[in-house]
Automatic annotation (TrEMBL):
Limits of the Glycoside hydrolase family 3 C-terminal domain: 271-450
Domain of life, source organism: Eukaryota
UniProt key word Signal: yes
Glycoside hydrolase family 3 N-terminal domain: residues covered: 21-225
Keyword Hydrolase: yes
SUPFAM superfamilies in the record: (Trans)glycosidases (SSF51445), Beta-D-glucan exohydrolase, C-terminal domain (SSF52279)
Protein name: Glycoside hydrolase family 3 C-terminal domain-containing protein
Residue ranges of the TM segments: none
Amino acid sequence: MQAVSDEGRAMYNGGQAGLTFWSPNVNIFRDPRWGRGQETPGEDPAVSGRYAAAYVRGLQQPYGGGGRHGGHTRLKTAACCKHFTAYDLDSWSGTDRFHFNAIVTPQDLEDTFNVPFRSCVVDGRAASVMCSYNQVNGVPTCADESFLRGTIRGKWHLEGYIVSDCDSVDVFYRDQHYTRTHEDAVAATLRAGLDLDCGPFLAVYTEGAVSQRKVTDADIDAAVTNTVIVQMRLGMYDGDLATQPFGHLGPQHVCTPAHQELALEAARQSVVLLKNDGTALPLSRAAHHTVAVVGPHSQATVAMIGNYAGQPCRYTTPLQGIGRYVKTTLHQAGCTDVACQGGNQPIAAAVDAARRADATIVVVGLDQKVEAEGLDRTSLLLPGRQAELVSAVAKASKGPVILVLMSGGPVDIAFAQKDRKIAGILWAGYPGQAGGQAIADVIFGHHNPGMYTSTVSILMIQVGIEFQMTKFTKN
């Protein structure tokens, strides 16, 4: 995270960015079809909590003494843990996040959903927390005083501000009809403990709430103070940037060779081995001179960086990465895109390439058109005819077949697990700009793969987990 904070400060010094990162997303990845699961550390509260604290400390890089309990007062950047709380649905079966009411017991809040947020604030000392769009037990999180004042600021002692998800206040007024008037919505959220509104709602209606005596000057003073304190800790009032501790950071500190190597190493460590029959993996460069590289993600670029990503320094596609290890690559996409729908898919060309190769690597999966913010999945199956492509290529290949999955959420690959022609399976997530090189490094034995952060039983596909999103939904 030091690399991220260095580049963040460099961009700020150049007038290209601010210093608040609305990250990390530490919501519990409870349902594998959730479109934003890709942003989270996974389903395990304990793992998510440790991740949250480490992420925040690494991003904020606190320094300077004099803080509470002997801590630091100054920040290099400001982290924001989101989205508090019990948020794991965007749009599914007629319910969206703007109308979602999560029915959650106090024990589930304490033992599951709030665990990573507590770690963010208590252990990581995060500068801010973002409340979510949804309601919890009938109350919008951004208007829940027991959550904002009682838990985040009262029990956990947040030293910073609480911010709404963008237009959340307008959402609970206009979409959830939680208050009768705009001014009542202002009063509800400020008195609950919100400090900063992402959106124009408070800017437009707070003056009216004050004149109607629904909000006091003290309410506004508290919100402003909590926000400005973070700005002060970031050094925004300290004068000339060049004279400040991080004033030396500039364009030369963005996309450095060290940072690009870090991106590659992170991608390597993200690759997970799901199947390896016999001695299929790693592939031998001496035995496999010609390798077929097929699948809709075989030349992936933008898909590899997932969502909420910046401009990468450069891309290394799977085809490029594999090409650095072998004498000849035979490339055929096999699908016109990730959706892989319709009768015009070039599956036959991919099959022909597999017949002529010493080994075949099939790169399939999802992208932001399948799983994303505002887009939950209805199935865990590979999109369109991707599974057909995989099976056809495996049947035709004269050498070992390695299946590589790119996705944020889990995918049902029972068919591939059972297919004896598919010797190895790797999950790569959305591995970032260097993902293609990382995948190749694992396939050819330069790096050993790791562990997966989510579990899903193949037998639960579509039927068994049908209850998970709906059981928390009241509206």
